[in-house]
Design goal:
This protein is α+β, with helices and mostly antiparallel strands and 232 residues long. It contains seven helices and twelve strands. The protein has a nine-stranded mixed β-sheet. A three-stranded antiparallel β-sheet has the order 5-4-11, with no helix packed on it. Helix 1 links the parallel strand 6 and strand 7. This is MOSC domain-containing protein. Pfam families: MOSC (PF03473). InterPro entries: Benzoxazolinone_Detox_Enz, MoCF_Sase_C, Pyrv_Knase-like_insert_dom_sf. It comes from Ruegeria spongiae.
């Protein structure tokens, strides 16, 4: 998987505030709106963005969420998205075409405007995605298809605006695509040997490294009912 010229135009940047969206449920900042002009990126992501529950969203390993707009046509073809839906339907911060979970790898370092970011993990969908999209099955479909998008950690703060380029600069783990690692994490189907490798991958988010460490020891059980079903 060698893509030395891999880059894309940034079609949109989307930020959001914490809101009470659903009665009896925790607040969320999954609803993002398009912003114009140059946006500052700090070590925790876009300065104008927010996450409601920092125990599972945001933080240095999940500072920015990037989603490929090409996936929207697949969701529409499958009847899970209304035709004509615009970017940020999944709460992503960055929308591009041409960069996917298949052609990007965990640990990839990319130039994002004047900032430098690194892919840390794929997205683990939760029940909020189902409520936000109006389709309760969406978190499960995210897992099934692997069309989850990915998160960046910020290596060097900077600023970026729509119309800028995002360009691959370094690829330390060419054998570990975002798709392969995310599928292994979400399905927990992986050999102990591969799980051990991922548990030691310094570029991978700490939480995922710990999870793969458990899998390497033969413990693949995980209760996902609260995350996917929304018992909060």
């Amino acid at each position: 998987m060698n893509h030395p010229e891999l880059s894309a135009n940034i079609d949109g940047i989307f930020l959001g505030a914490i809101r009470d969206r659903w009665e009896g449920k925790p607040a969320s900042a999954i609803q993002k709106g398009r912003v114009d002009g140059r946006q500052a990126i700090t070590s925790l992501g876009f300065s104008g963005d927010a996450q409601a529950d920092l125990t599972v969203h945001g933080g240095e390993d999940k500072a920015i969420h990037h989603y490929d707009f090409d996936h929207y046509s697949a969701w529409q073809a499958e009847g899970l998205m209304t035709p004509g839906t615009m970017p940020a339907a999944f709460g992503e911060n960055i929308s591009t075409t041409g960069l996917t979970e298949e052609n990007l790898c965990i640990g990839d370092i990319l130039l994002l405007g004047t900032a430098v970011v690194q892919i840390s993990q794929g997205r683990q969908p939760c029940w909020k995605l189902g409520l936000h999209t109006g389709r309760k099955e969406m978190p499960y479909q995210f897992q099934k298809t692997g069309r989850t998008g990915w998160y960046y950690r910020v290596l060097e703060p900077g600023e970026v605006g729509a119309g800028d380029r995002i360009t691959l600069a370094e690829r330390p783990n060419p054998n570990w695509s975002v798709l392969a690692v995310t599928r292994a994490r979400l399905t927990r189907r992986i050999s102990p040997e591969d799980a051990e490798v991922l548990s030691q991958m310094k570029e991978l988010a700490e939480g995922w490294r710990q999870a793969f460490g458990r899998m390497a020891e033969g413990n693949a059980k995980e209760d996902t009912s609260a995350r996917l079903g929304g018992s909060g």
